[in-house]
Amino acid sequence: MSRQAQQERQYRELERAQRRRLWLSVLLPFSFVLAVAVAFVGIALSLRSPAQLAILSNAMLTVLLLCPLVIIMFPLTILSFGLVALASRWRSKSRSPLRRLEAWTAVVEQNAEGWLGQVDERVLNWAVRLAPVRELLMAFEAPESKTPEEGES
Predict the structure, then answer these.
(1) How far apart are alpha carbons 76 and 30 in whole angstroms?
(2) Where are the alpha helices (DSSP H) in the chain?
(3) What does the pLDDT read at residue 119?
(4) In this structure, are residues 30 and 81 in contact, taking their beta carbons and an 8 Å threshold?
């Protein structure tokens, strides 16, 4: 199997795993809460006695007052679902441009390594050629005097 085919298979497996995680962590709890809300509405519509309806409404009001974030977060949850759907579309559309960018980056990296290798080789060649001149210039320098370190007598 070619390397590209293996990468394609890995990408498909990652997409399946991501969809599974999305379903288990977001869509399943949202579906459960939505089903409970629909059940409460259905029960409220089917009740005939005002006392029964009052008990149900008091229970729902208590839950909603104890969990106000449910009300606040509901529009944000709907918005995030929309953004997740758009992101999944954009991800599949951006795959091939990102692969081209990855290939181009690898080519640029190889070219840069080649150029840096040539520069390194030229610098070393010039350093070898100029070594006698450096020794000649060092001949006129005063020798360094060794100073005793502190603590020695």
Answers:
(1) 12
(2) 3-22, 28-46, 50-66, 68-129, 131-139
(3) 93
(4) yes
Q: Do 1 and 85 form a contact (C-beta atoms < 8 A)? A: no
70-106 burial string, b = 16+ CB within 10 Å, else e?
A: eeeeeeeeeeeeeeeeeeeeeeeeeeeeeeeeeeeee
Per the listing, tokens 């089903």 go with: 35
What distance in Å separates the CA atoms of residue 106 and residue 108, rounded to the nearest whole number? 5
pLDDT at 114: 93
Q: Using 50, 70 and 90 to split pLDDT, how confident is the model at 85?
A: confident
Q: Which tokens go with 86?
A: 């758009």
Burial of 47 (0-12, 13-18, 19+ CB in 10 A): middle
DSSP collapsed to 3 states, 34-77: HHHHHHHHHHHHHCCCHHHHHHHHHHHHHHHHHCHHHHHHHHHH
Lookup result for tokens 């006392």: 51
| pLDDT tens figures, 7-30 | 888 888 888 888 888 777 777 778
pTM (2 decimals)? 0.33
